Structure to design on (831 residues):
């Protein structure tokens, strides 16, 4: 009896710590069995990774904020706006290089700064600020485009960033991998990450220990917006069009992936490996379901259910 | 002589692998007694209390109430059995009224539409509070604007209204002034008369001896003694708590006091009126005053937390602005704050990360802020050895350490910044006697190395025992300067209470 109970306790603790990993493996297993010759191939692996590259960028940005127990609800519109601005700049004679840099500066940095400044210095709750900034982005998209997609004058080689290949690896996958590595160093191995986690756990202690709390918060919002912006540029590059609604889904997806991540590794805190897991779960679920032939509407229902189950497992903890 | 036990805890054990937090502990409470529960931090008091409160589950043993075995799986069950707990932090909602706070977790009175009947709620609350001799209309006051004493009384009133039979009080006097504490003791005596038992947990042994009938002593998770208070004295209690001979409580040494490191001249803010004093290297300067005397506010001014409205601060003879905490730290000031867990530590982070938080860039490669993990770990381990912090792995979370060891982590953080001025705000509050002695020793050690120490406390014997010289603050101003050798405890108490002192102040111009 007691032994059985103990095993049960151990299983439930393991599930609560590694439930997301179990779900990742479970999903992979299901699709591998359902489509043995198509799903578990190197080619499909890279296709899947390419599909989730923009989501990866958005979630990485969100992770920085989650480490501080903050969030940003303007990311979806920042993604759309970035694609629209980049393509519009190209249409007005900007080169690929200057166009991308200008977009990151004009959209990512600017809106990140606005979010960060209002939250940090004017002490308005991030919920209000980032929703407000989201609305502004939405408006600006329509001011620029009048509601039409932008596709004139985009240089051919802009597409390389979103759909090019190096040998057999898609370029966006390489970009995200490199950025992930940089984020890993920033969050786990540098003063920035240490301070972010310190602020997220106890802002008073951090500031009494001489941490420049305001600066670190500002940087968090700046990074989050800039990453969303890069995701928007990547999407525009892949499709060679600046679409007015390209980013809307990324608000929910980006937040979900990063939130899923908080259930593993560093419990309750935004963390990179967790975010990676979250993004992979979403990527595999969509990729696999498409392959198996699940209809669009049902894909959404199933994805939602997976998320709830994952978080329910990881928050269920027996014993006290 | 044996009374029927109201509560009986038999051979209860609790393991937090790999350690055993409670081992075969027995504990009983008879009706209408005040029972002290004492032990050093980490002795198992709070584990025992949390088991009775339904927060933890016991691994073995039985709990009997009125002779019948009971199970307590949730805090709600504990309450319905008549066990009520008043925690040190009270857990009241700041923006509700005192009256409303009495009804959290109970049924609010409803009117016929099923909405809260505020009028009768206020009436009922006022009735329940009136038994405790509180001012009129207290029930309408916001919690956040009510003194700790009345908030505590509200918590007691709530417990009584829930048909409480045993009231557990955890360090109730920690945030009360002396008068307020005396008032609390009167209330306790009153409750006792009504047949309510009280389990009183405190580090202050004088209080235990003043109000308790019996006392149960725990050490390292084991029962080391249960006595009638009339059968024992403070020395034997301390002896059983520590389990070794009494060490010298105040490890005072003669330290060479060198040149001036800090001078505060006419410093003032909204709360602090013009203050002037100086501090030398190697000196331990005490600051004592009642809660609200401006001790903490004065230190906040020096540490750059609050804005000053006038005056100046000189460090090593140079005037400094200290307009922010960061500039104060750069200028060599460190603050071990009053609220260890809320302001001194990031509980959820590793021990080493807490130690290096104020001085992170020292552990980085070059100026890029990339951490040198092995250097950080090595240094943290050095501190753990040097300060005798009881922790197996510096990568463990600081939340799992006992109060005394946590305080040492905070101190290590400031030693690491090589501060020339260290401010200790109530550094021994809520930590056990053994750890207190070690904290004193650390402070003396730091003074010996040439730091100027400001030691803030509200405990007179501590101030007299550890400082070279001390200031008494009263309503935001310095009421007097004393040296411990020439001052008696009651002179200090009078200065603290009344803001003036009689004759023997002495030593004003000591070098």
């Amino acid at each position: 009896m007691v032994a059985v109970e103990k095993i049960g306790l151990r299983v439930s603790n393991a599930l609560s710590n590694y439930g997301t990993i179990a779900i990742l493996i479970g999903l992979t297993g299901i699709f591998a069995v359902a489509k043995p010759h198509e799903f578990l191939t190197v080619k499909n692996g890279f296709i899947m990774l390419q599909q989730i590259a923009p989501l990866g960028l958005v979630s990485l940005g969100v992770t920085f904020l989650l480490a501080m127990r903050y969030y940003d609800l303007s990311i979806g519109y920042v993604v759309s706006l970035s694609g629209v601005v980049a393509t519009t700049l190209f249409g007005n004679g900007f080169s690929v290089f200057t166009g991308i840099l200008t977009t990151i500066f004009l959209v990512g940095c600017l809106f990140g700064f606005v979010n960060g400044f209002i939250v940090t210095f004017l002490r308005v709750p991030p919920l209000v600020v980032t929703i407000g900034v989201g609305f502004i982005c939405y408006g600006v998209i329509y001011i620029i485009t009048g509601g039409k997609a932008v596709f004139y004058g985009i240089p051919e080689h802009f597409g390389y960033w979103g759909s090019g290949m190096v040998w057999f690896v898609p370029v966006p996958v390489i970009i995200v991998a490199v950025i992930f590595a940089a984020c890993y160093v920033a969050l786990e191995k540098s003063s920035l990450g240490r301070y972010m986690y310190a602020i997220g756990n106890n802002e008073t202690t951090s500031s009494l220990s001489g941490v420049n709390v305001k600066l670190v918060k500002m940087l968090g919002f700046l990074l989050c917006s800039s990453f969303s912006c890069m995701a928007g540029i990547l999407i525009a590059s892949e499709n060679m069009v600046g679409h007015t609604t390209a980013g809307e889904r990324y608000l929910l997806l980006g937040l979900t992936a990063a939130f899923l991540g908080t259930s593993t590794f560093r419990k309750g805190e935004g963390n990179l490996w967790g975010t990676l897991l979250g993004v992979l779960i979403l990527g595999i679920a969509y990729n696999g379901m498409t392959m198996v032939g699940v209809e669009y509407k049902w894909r959404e229902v199933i994805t939602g259910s997976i998320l709830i189950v994952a978080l329910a497992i990881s928050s269920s903890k027996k014993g006290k | 002589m044996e009374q029927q036990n109201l509560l009986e805890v038999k051979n209860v054990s609790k393991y937090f692998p790999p350690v055993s937090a409670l081992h075969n502990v027995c504990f009983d409470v008879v009706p209408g007694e005040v029972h002290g529960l004492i032990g050093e931090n980490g002795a198992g008091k709070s584990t025992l209390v949390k088991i009775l409160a339904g927060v933890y589950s016991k691994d073995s043993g039985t709990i009997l109430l009125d002779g019948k075995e009971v199970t307590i799986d949730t805090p709600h069950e504990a309450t319905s059995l008549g066990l009520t707990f008043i925690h040190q932090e009270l857990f009241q909602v700041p923006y509700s009224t005192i009256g409303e706070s009495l009804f959290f977790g109970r049924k609010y009175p409803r009117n016929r539409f099923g909405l809260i009947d505020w009028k009768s709620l206020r009436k009922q609350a006022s009735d329940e509070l009136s038994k405790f001799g509180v001012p009129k209309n207290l029930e309408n006051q916001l919690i956040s604007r009510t003194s700790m004493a009345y908030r505590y009384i509200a918590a007691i009133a709530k417990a009584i209204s829930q048909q409480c039979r045993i009231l557990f009080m955890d360090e109730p006097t920690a945030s009360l002034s002396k008068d307020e504490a005396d008032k609390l003791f009167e209330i306790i005596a009153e409750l006792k008369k009504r047949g309510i038992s009280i389990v009183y947990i405190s580090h202050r042994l004088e209080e235990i001896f003043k109000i308790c009938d019996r006392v149960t002593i725990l050490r390292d998770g084991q029962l080391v003694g249960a006595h009638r208070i009339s059968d024992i004295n403070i020395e034997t209690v301390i002896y059983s708590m520590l389990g070794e001979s009494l060490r010298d409580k105040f490890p005072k040494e003669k330290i060479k006091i060198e040149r001036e490191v800090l001078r505060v001249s006419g410093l003032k803010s909204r709360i602090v009126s013009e203050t002037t004093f100086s501090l030398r290297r190697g000196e331990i300067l005490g600051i004592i005053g009642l809660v609200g005397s401006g001790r903490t506010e004065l230190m906040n001014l020096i540490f750059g937390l609050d804005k000053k409205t006038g005056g100046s601060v000189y460090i090593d003879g140079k005037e400094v602005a200290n307009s922010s905490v960061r500039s104060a730290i750069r200028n060599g000031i460190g603050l071990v704050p009053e609220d260890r867990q809320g302001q001194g530590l990031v509980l959820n982070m590793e021990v080493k990360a807490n130690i290096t938080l104020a001085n992170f860039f020292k552990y980085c490669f070059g100026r890029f802020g990339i951490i040198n993990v092995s250097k950080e770990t090595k240094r943290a381990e050095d501190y753990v050895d040097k300060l005798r912090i009881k922790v197996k792995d510096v990568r463990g979370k600081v939340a799992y350490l006992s109060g005394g060891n946590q305080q040492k982590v905070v101190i290590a953080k400031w030693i690491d910044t090589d501060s020339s001025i260290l401010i200790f705000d109530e550094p021994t509050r809520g930590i056990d006697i053994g750890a207190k002695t070690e904290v004193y020793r650390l402070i003396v050690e730091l003074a010996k190395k040439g730091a100027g120490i400001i030691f803030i406390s509200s405990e007179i014997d501590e101030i007299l025992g550890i400082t070279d010289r001390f200031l008494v603050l009263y309503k935001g101003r310095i009421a007097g300067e004393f040296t411990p050798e020439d001052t008696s405890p009651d002179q200090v108490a009078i200065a603290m209470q009344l803001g003036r002192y009689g004759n023997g102040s002495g030593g004003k111009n000591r070098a």
Confidence is low (pLDDT under 50) at residues 503-511 of chain B. Chain B has 17 helices and 22 strands. Chain B touches chain A at residues 55-57, 305, 325-326, 329-330, 335, 337, 342-349, 353, 357-358, 360-361, 364, 368-371, 373, 413 (CB under 8 Å). The CA atoms of residues 170 and 201 of chain B lie 5 Å apart.
